[in-house]
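DATA SHEET
Item: assembly model
Revision: 1
Owner: S.N.
Input lines:
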Amino acid sequence: MPLRLALVLVVLFGTVSLLSLAASYAVTRAAFEQSIREDLAQDMAGFRAAPSARAVALLVQAESQQTDPGRLVLSYVTRAGRIYGNGAVARDDEGFHILSLDDGRATLDGAYLALSARLYGGRLTIARSRAEVTALQPVFLNILWISLLPTVLIALGGGLILARRSQRHVEVVSRALERITGGDLGARVATGKRWSGDLARIGGAVNGMADAQERSVTALRQISSDIAHDLKTPVQRVSLQLAALADVVPEGEAAALVAETRAEVDGISSVFQSLLQLAQVENGALRAQFTSVDLAPRARTIVEVYEPVATERDQTLTFEGPDSAVVQGEKNLLGQLVSNLIENAVTHAGAGAAIAVRVTADAQAVTLSVRDTGPGIPQAERSRVIQRLYRLDRSRNTPGNGLGLSLVDGVARLHRATLSFEDAQPGLCVRVVFAR
Amino acid sequence: MKILVIEDDATTGTYIARGLREEGHVVDLVHDGRAGLLAATGGGHEVLIVDRMLPQIDGLTLVKTLRGAGSTTPVLFLTAMGAVEDRISGLNAGADDYLVKPFAFGELSARVVALGRRPQAIEQETTLTAGDLTLDLLTRKVTRGGHEIDLLPREFALLEFLLRRKGRVQTRTMLLEGVWDLSFDPMTNVVETHVSRLRAKIDKPFATELLKTVRGAGYRIDG
């Protein structure tokens, strides 16, 4: 923006300078010409004062001898055709010329302003050189360069510097905004004294917005932790009392009912736990606790943990990957991401499925993929499976609370990793790419 | 063991205290942070159970203060949040273990026992035994009644973990954390599957059962 403004100003300034220079050139030139005309008239008046043709001729002859024809040409042609002076006026198709008398009637260079009059039967011509007027042109051109060029350079340079500075400031603002929208609500725009008023105001507004957001999020977190405390404690009591009840009821229908109720309470607290965890993962503040986590051995161990479960369902669960694939992250959440993906495959891919967990690492990214040969996810539902509590129709009767993939998505976002669901033909391939 | 429970919810606190007393522990129960701090400084307790949210002085500050004063008594943190951030802040403050509400009493009891015996767990042994079962840490061989038992590495690790904590209940989550370094609860019954595979090798062919299931709590190796 400031660069464009600077350019406009340069053009405007240049145009105005050019116009004013052109005007003063025209005025100066007119004044010069006027003064030549006056000189000529004065000269002519001087010769008119001579009493006779002879006197004019003598005057012309005398003055010619001490006059440079380059500056002033005098020429008197008497009635008899005799020529006195230091030049003669000739006329051809192109106009009038001043001819030198000395060296074979050569044309004198340069422009002249001439005044001609009949005097005592002869013709007196006085021509004054316009060299001074012609010389004005380069002088004015020089003035133009000397005054305009530095101004243009200064204006352009200043514009560039301002533009770069304001671009830097805009970047500071947008970086802060990026961090804020990325969940780092503590990020602020550090405005400086040299900031332009507009940007400083925008920075202030961004900070105000972040303050408000931080306050409301803090309030929200306070509320959710209060809810957690207020609701979890009663759930805790119910759970403990049910456990006590289980100890005293005799075997039979009552015991079975207690066991069922305990399972329900466990389910409630598991959903509750997952929702709370999701809320914490989504707020992004956990990034401050990131460390280097080696994803390869972590995934290998988790595959090992799930291998017997898969075998029980006639599934094969394999791991393939390098010895090491380090990413920046939170160890337990990354473990849970891997675990949820494997659990998802084991639960939904069906008996006989082959589940392959792969970790690959190159200079740009670490990629984790979990591929199965199960029924997959229909294209239309792929974006919905990460929604909270969403479950495919055919999965209603399998265990799960519909939060597993939401958490995977949340953890991936927290780590600024991209999560994608692809058709493995047949089956599903879930890919998580961590940029390095 | 002498245990101090600092829990503001009366029902939960009473239930915990009663349960621990039934298991033979001596339990002091207080309901706010101030009373908790006073009781903890002069009580000679072996384990502290501290709720995260307490009136007057919250659990985090209480643990920090105790650690700052040089107390090394193991602390089990009870948290209603149970998410990563809370766990990290609790452990950073100086807690030794944490438990997420709602929890089963068996889980609490097993963790309290583990905390109370923590220092003795660091023993330099080359063989671990239970009854007629022997596990050699150097040759990585397992024998029972003179018969060699062939175990997969993951089964060996599970058995070693249980043998090192012989006679003490280990819950599912303690096994997940201790054997596989996983601090979350999977939906599927992975621990049960691992245990039943191990049991099929070390118990099934023999007359007596060494690896026991403790109802509502976890697993324990006796002998």
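QC remark: The helical segments of chain A are 2-48, 53-65, 131-181, 197-248, 253-283, 295-312, 331-348, 404-414.
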